[in-house]
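Minutes, project huddle
Topic: does the predicted pose make sense with XIL bound?
PN asked that the exact inputs be recorded in the minutes so nobody has to dig through chat later. Recorded below.
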Amino acid sequence: MRFYFHLLGIILTSLFFTNCGETNADTPLVPTDTIPRLKTNFTNAFTIGAALNEAQILETDQVGASLIKKEFNTITPENNMKWMYIHPTLDSFNFSICDQYVEFGRKNNMHIVGHALLWHSQIAEYMNEVKDSALMASYIDQHIRKVAGHYKGKIDTWDVVNEALNEDGTFRESNFFKVMGPSYLEQAFRTAAEVDPTATLIYNDYNMWKPEKRAGAVKLVKNLQEKGIKIDGVGMQAHWSLIGPDLKDVENSILAYAELGVKVMFTELDVTALPNPWELEGAEVSQNFEGSPFMDPYPDGLPDSMQVKLAERYSDIFNLFLKHQDKISRVTFWGVNDGGSWLNNWPIENRTNHPLFFDRNYLPKPAYHKVMNLNQPKN
Ligand code: XIL
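Predicted holo structure (tokens), as shared on screen:
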């Protein structure tokens, strides 16, 4: 049975792509520009993008790369630009994959995001051992000068600092903060602005809809502004579910950040279709859930009823984005298709999640079609 589903998927995928007007296809059935795509659909509202994995950047995943070029006009590197990969030891830099990432974006006329200059996670081990504030400041300085300098004029938007806040809006006790206090963040933005004055510089974090975290983010942005340090935007990651967050909270955050005079971006959008262990009473992430059918209910595909729910949730989300399109400059999905989503392995490993617009065969799902059919408010 699975085999036939797989075969059907391949046939449908090839039909979808034959209709795309590929330059290397024999005779395109329909010219490319007559087919509505995400990027053309939302062209008057915001740019629309996806995080790319290595196979997509290198175009070894040809189907994925081809779809990205058609649907999206902005890209983010899912992992390759993180400190542990691009600057693994104090004196070594691995630019080669990221150079290809930037080339991919330039060739295809895309808005190119750099993710991320400073993040406590996926950082090189030597940074966790630094205890001296002057040394930490010099390492941060070197990292930003080398990385942002290498891509000067080529990265359009930098996530300068990622996830610096706790849920209550106070500063996270990362090693950066433990050693330098909040000055590390100021230094990061100051240096990034000096190295690449034309890049858009943003602060990025998850749960930015939460009122307490929102208050912390507002304070963070205001502090930079009061000190005359350039910050252009706030990135709301948007790793959401079918039931949360309440879009009223999201809207209040959009309004609060826009009020500061900065742009709002949804930088890592996905909607999990699976049960979340943290929604269970007691909030205890139990090992017992791992691999249990209860926590992994759709290994063979998302049932129609759930496709409808996912489509409705995405439609509500995009209606809100469209309502505030004057404040929102970008919406980026965290991944391209369901098979490549990090949510197959987080917060529980080895599940089959269905959080994105394209299924495992890169075919558009009902959520894609529903969002494509939304009536956009006229400017
Ligand atoms: C995730 C990647 O998608 C995974 O492949 C990796 O194993 C862990 O990081 N917030 C972020 C992203 O800012 O960088 C994270 O990406 C997801 C959460």
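Observations noted during the meeting:
- The chain has two domains: 1-30, 36-372.
- The beta strands are 47-52, 74-77, 111-119, 157-162, 200-205, 233-236, 239-241, 263-272, 328-333.
No decisions taken; revisit at the next huddle.
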